[in-house]
UniProtKB/TrEMBL annotation:
CDD domains found in the cross-reference section: PanC
Gene3D superfamilies: HUPs, Pantoate-beta-alanine ligase, C-terminal domain
Record field: catalytic activity: (R)-pantoate + beta-alanine + ATP = (R)-pantothenate + AMP + diphosphate + H(+)
HAMAP family registered for this protein in UniProt: PanC
Matches recorded under NCBIfam families: cyt_tran_rel, panC
Biological role: Catalyzes the condensation of pantoate with beta-alanine in an ATP-dependent reaction via a pantoyl-adenylate intermediate.
SUPFAM superfamilies membership: Nucleotidylyl transferase (SSF52374)
Protein name per Swiss-Prot or TrEMBL: Pantothenate synthetase
EC number: 6.3.2.1
Residues holding ATP: 40-47, 157-160, 186, 194-197
Species this protein is from: Methylobacterium terricola
GO MF term list: ATP binding; pantoate-beta-alanine ligase activity
Compartment list: Cytoplasm
Protein family per UniProt: Belongs to the pantothenate synthetase family.
Length: 288
């Protein structure tokens, strides 16, 4: 008889900062590089691709799972954001992550906590005005995670491109000695960017959802080479609305570094969109 495959080793669970620092410190003393993959859980193949990418450059990988309350607005989906910890840990074991950092709210925001990290400029466009306080919540929690773990590098998906640029800027400005790596968006076969929120979509909405990526690619093709961005963006917004996205919060061509809106693309840029499909807010972007 062929022996049954061995179950994957369990992932080391770390619940407090002292345990995290002790474990990371021991790895580093042994000469092993350490990567951090911050997440809010409800893991999917996109998250696992970050872990695999981290394993290419570092011997040890820590994945944090923390649904951060400070990045949700009062009318957003914090209470219904999916929480499936045991399933997440099983996936991390399968992919070979070394440890999961699982802080609770009191660990991240103890009584009397009164410090916020705010990044100007980059947060004043795109999602910033639509989600007041969101990026301050992101920058604060990621700064804490980086300082708690002090890994060699931390990896983030490019689907949340504005978030990635905010984290890069905060890390650079505060001299945090961690390399920030953006990893290309992982997509379903029909082009939909993988997201924990995709599970909110109805069957009909799921069939319509890939239109966002198609529109982004069409706009990027139209503006590549210096054509005015206005007409292509107007056509794109109309196409999103026709596909069932309402409201379309933005469809924009922006400088890849500063995120400033562009009338013409003359260097590295991104076309970015945020729109609702039913009750679910989807975001995506493509490079120009």
């Amino acid at each position: 008889m062929t022996p049954s495959p061995s179950p994957p080793a369990s992932v080391l669970r770390l619940g407090d900062v002292a345990a995290l620092r002790a474990r990371v410190g021991a790895w580093r003393e042994a000469g092993e590089g350490v990567a951090l993959v911050p997440t809010m859980g409800a893991l999917h193949e996109g998250h696992l691709s970050l872990v695999r990418r981290a394993q290419e450059s570092c011997r040890r990988v820590v994945v944090s799972i923390f649904v951060n309350p400070t990045q949700f607005g009062p009318n957003e989906d914090f209470s219904r954001y999916p929480r499936v910890l045991e399933a997440d840990l099983a996936l991390l074991a399968e992919v070979g992550a070394d440890a999961a950092f699982l802080p609770d709210v009191a660990t991240m925001y103890p009584p009397g906590f009164s410090t916020t990290v705010t990044v100007a400029g980059l947060t004043e466009v795109l999602c910033g005005p639509l989600r007041p306080g969101h990026f301050a919540g992101v920058a604060t929690v990621v700064t804490k995670l980086l300082l708690q773990a002090l890994p060699d590098r931390a990896l983030f998906g490019e689907k949340d491109f504005q978030q990635l640029q905010v984290i890069r800027r905060a890390t650079r400005d505060l001299d945090i000695p961690v390399a920030i790596e953006g990893v290309p968006t992982l997509r379903e076969a029909d082009g939909l960017a993988m997201s924990s929120r995709n599970r909110y979509l109805s069957d009909e909405e799921r069939r319509a959802a890939p239109a966002m990526h198609r529109v982004l690619r069409q706009v990027a093709d139209s503006v590549r080479g210096g054509a005015p961005t206005g007409p292509a963006l107007a056509e794109g917004r109309a196409a999103l609305a026709a596909a069932g996205f309402t409201p379309v919060q933005y469809l924009s061509a922006n400088d890849a570094e500063s995120l400033a809106p562009l009338e013409r693309v003359e260097g590295p840029a991104r076309v970015l969109a945020a729109a609702y499909l039913g009750r679910t807010r989807l975001i995506d972007n493509v490079a120009v």
